[in-house]
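This part of the workshop introduces the protein records we will be handling. A record pairs a protein's sequence with a compact description of its fold. Comparing a sequence with its tokens is the quickest way to learn the format. The record below serves as our worked example for the rest of this section:
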Amino acid sequence: MEKTTPYLQKPVTCMKKPISAAEYLAVTLRFLATGESYSTLEFQFRISKSTLSNMIPFVCKVICTVLKDDHLACPQSELEWLNIAKQFQDRWQLPNCLGAGDGKHIRLLCPSNSGSEYYNYKGYYSLVLMAFVGPEYQFLFVDVGCQGNVSDGGVFHRTSLWKALEGATASIFHKQNHCHKIQIQSLKTPVIQTWNTFLFVTMHFHWDFI
């Protein structure tokens, strides 16, 4: 609340008392938690649908702006990635793992003139939300907006994280070689991320589902 108030609180004028920052946040959180329609929220909060249609997207952008660095901070150094791998080893006995990822289809109405671009294999139109989490269930990376007809692998290939890996800028690997390995008894294992449905191998990464 303290972080969002400077963005949400409107000045008082002689014409009317503005909607408070608390109301902005309350109605948005209600919408996100329940998925209720603007018509229902209009009666609950006594705020018109036209105002809600502008208010809720605005508050979502504010929440993202003020909280993303604290709660969606992707590791920036090799030491941070290795610390995540150590936590996976200690808590889940999964050696050299850098994160767990999956995609979620967000249902939407068919966008105009999009054809089957957003039509997914489940039989409805959607956008894809892709997320990677660490050993403590914390978000490490989130990407949203890819078309619903794209596979998980295709979505990942379009993310900024993949581009960083391809450009060797994600600080995951030693400069001397492209695959940081650890010794487990007599077996050397590459870095991995757990995934849901597919096996993916590159010179950098070994993906596998558990």
About this structure: The radius of gyration is 21 Å.
